[in-house]
Specification:
2 copies of one chain form a homodimer. Helices cover about 35% and strands about 25% of the residues of chain A. By secondary structure, the first copy, chain A, is of the alpha/beta class. Chain A has 3 domains: about 140 residues, NAD(P)-binding Rossmann-like Domain (Rossmann fold); about 160 residues, Dihydrodipicolinate Reductase, domain 2 (2-Layer Sandwich), CATH 3.30.360; about 90 residues, ACT domain (Alpha-Beta Plaits, 2-Layer Sandwich), CATH 3.30.70.260. In chain A, the strands form 3 sheets. In chain A, strands 7, 8, 9, 10, 11, 12 and 13 form a 7-stranded mixed β-sheet that branches. In chain A, α1 crosses α12. Chains A and B meet through α1, α6, β12, α12 and β13 of A and α1, α6, β12, α12 and β13 of B.
Chain lengths: ~425, ~425
């Protein structure tokens, strides 16, 4: 192979300070430090600010290069040799204030803070535009999977008809364990916590908030519209029972927590819901803590991306990719926003619903439910009551499961209102959906 | 939802002419035409040149807008209102000359021509750089899967340790059919031809040349090095037999034609080979004509992308993405080339080999082969001779299959040299590999 001389390098030097030395901040520092050992790196680690002097990650950096350490935001903001701040503090109040100040001081910002971007992205991007600075947030959506970049720079976003996928690794890990090992939700969650896949307070992940923040950001990238998170219908995975997975398996389905955005003409459909997915569908086969994002284009057919959506280094690598983008002289590109949209009410969506019905056994229950469904002209697609299903003696609850033919959410709700009043129910009917 | 006014658009007008109105060229014309009906499109269809006036795709455009039609390259080159040429002529001689002339005339070029880029990419990119023009080729590798863009603009390519995947849809379709329907190669190929998945002369796809061209381009994007295609070890899929798939299935494997590039320090490993892949590995589950590319980063773990690698509109959508990139004022970014590499000789690679041995049955064959393997200190991992395996009477050939423990290719070759001399062989031993 021929020997090759060093080629010119047309990017400019980009000196970076990291604020917040938690899991992700430490990862960014490590990657930039490793890159620093190689030649020709436009992105340079130039500062670290961690307000908590007890943070154990600090000790490493005190040893490696004490001159990197900053002790106040003001020192960073007024240092003209720093061009970019990586915000890895997390949370909303302090981080929002920090990013605002950094942009106003004439520096660029790179962040992984999905909550903040989902709730205050519109405001912060406006500040960035006003000061001619950049605010990049690739790492805020599915970690190292480069979906933000692709939607910002690559796809003709007007051609995108659908974005969907598994946006949260913790809940996917729990769902995978529940299915494969027939665990209860509680045990799968505790196991995920023991292994470090779930936090002590797992609400953000298991109730779907995290996935919804990401969907808000994706919706912005595709439509130019910032939805408020609460506008997006949300259901988590806490209410799922082992029985749901057993039934899904017999229906040749898996259960996945899916973030979903669909555009049809002026209508937007958006939700985060646990869905039944036919096995063999690519997304059904994504197990463990892996994330996936699929983009359905008008012309490109479906493109899917799969990778780790979290973790110190995968998330940090996405932040570093944003830093490289800045170092390459990226020009802020305004969203080509020309359309107005109507967010369709959830009641208009059409699903194939599966009902898990837990009852005190007595004669006539199926007939009674069947009657209500028929009154609403909802057809039954499949029905199952296993003999002595999860019963140890006759007095235990009986669970049976009905899958309905596709119908509008509104129609199902009307029927459920009636069914849920029945005295034989031991708990309200639980609903699992499948895209029709 | 709030109503939103049209935001500023900071991209500049980019008037495009398409040369070659075949399957892909027609797709590009169609997409640009559709986009043209919407507001605010920076990329405009401004010309079509198809030298063959008998081309049936021309009729549509004569009807739609005759003013788009050009009749000579010179007219296009000298038209100052055209900024970019989309080359969808294919082939090497004419296309190479065309691209050179276009770049010299001060226009940018977008192409899907993988053969041309793999063989003459270095020369053509040098011409583009000399004239300060752009030569983009996203569509040349796996169609709508945006891997070229990601490697050029996004990933810190020095961090990439491995790129691998299924780069050819035709051969993957044939392999999937052979496996699922126990077809012979010939029948699966004919079926693919009937369905339009394979060309009348399928050599480029089934012998692996197409996948190898793509691997040459990926290697350049990651290392800055242009390998000659012939430097990359290549084996196609024509020699595979139904027996290979039956055995693979019993080993819980599938067979995929894999393009593979690995970098370890200064060493490069590169090949295109049919490989045994454990089921459950994401790449094993990619069936039909779908493509996939996986990128293994030092920090990002593995990211995989899946989508259609060919077809009129998917390929055209990648060309259009390049056009949009140009319209957004993309700056040519030289490869950050600082390293020298050594392309490791294939003999140094380590695989787990599976041998399909077709013999005239007689006593002592296993002992004889076992002895040769032992002399070379190659261990047997699994061995199988099914009773009356594919035999209709005693005189028919007997096939048995041996999977060896991982060893260097060189060692296997030495052993095979001996084994292939045995008089009981009805054909040379067939080898299938698996990454150890």
């Amino acid at each position: 192979m021929s020997s090759l001389s060093e080629s010119q390098h047309d990017s400019y030097l980009c000196r970076v300070a990291i604020v917040g030395l938690g899991t992700v901040g430490r990862g960014v520092a490590e990657i930039l430090w490793q890159h620093g050992k190689e030649n020709n790196n436009a992105v340079q680690l130039a500062g670290i600010l961690e307000r908590n002097q007890e943070n154990p990650n600090l000790a490493d950096w005190v040893q490696r290069d004490q001159s990197l350490l900053y002790y106040s935001i003001e020192d960073l903001l007024t240092d003209p040799t720093i061009q970019v701040i990586v915000e890895t503090v997390g949370g909303q109040t302090f981080a929002r204030e920090l990013i605002r100040k950094v942009l106003e001081s004439g520096k660029d910002v790179v962040t992984a803070n999905k909550d903040l971007m989902a709730v205050h992205g519109e405001e912060l991007l406006a500040i960035a535009e006003k000061y001619g600075r950049q605010l990049l947030f690739e790492a805020s959506v599915t970690g190292a999977i480069p979906v933000v970049r692709l939607l910002q720079d690559y796809f003709h976003v007007d051609d995108i008809e659908k974005v969907s996928g598994i946006f949260n690794g913790t809940s996917n890990y729990i769902l995978t364990e529940m299915e494969q090992k027939q665990l209860s939700f509680e045990i799968a969650l505790r196991q995920a916590q023991d292994l470090g896949f779930a936090e002590a307070d797992p609400t953000n992940d298991i109730a779907g908030y995290d996935a919804r923040y990401k969907l808000v950001i994706l919706t912005y990238l595709i439509t130019g519209i910032w939805l408020a998170p609460e506008q997006i219908t949300l259901e988590g995975i806490e209410h799922l029972e082992p029985e749901d997975f057993v039934y899904a398996s017999r229906m040749d389905r898996r259960i996945k927590l899916i973030g979903y955005l669909r555009r049809e003409a002026q209508n937007l459909q958006a939700f985060v819901l646990p869905l039944m997915i036919p096995r063999g569908d690519a997304v059904a086969e994504i197990g463990g803590s892996t994330n996936t994002v699929s983009i359905q284009g008008r012309f490109s057919e479906e493109i899917s991306m799969v990778g780790k959506g979290a973790g110190s280094l995968p998330t940090a690598s996405a932040l570093v990719a944003d830093l490289e983008k800045i170092s390459r002289g990226f020009r802020l590109y305004s969203h080509r926003l020309v359309k107005q949209y109507r967010l369709q009410p959830f009641e208009e969506y059409i699903f194939r619903h599966t009902l898990r019905i837990t009852v005190k056994d007595k004669p006539g229950i199926v007939a009674q439910i069947g009657k209500v469904l028929a009154e609403h002209e909802i057809n039954i697609y499949a029905l199952e009551q296993l003999p002595q299903y999860h019963q140890k003696n006759g007095s235990h609850p009986v669970i049976f499961t009905i899958t309905l033919e596709a119908c509008q959410e509104a129609l199902l709700r009307k029927a459920l209102e009636k069914i849920n009043k029945a005295d034989f129910l031991l708990q309200p009917v639980s609903v699992l959906r499948e895209i029709a």
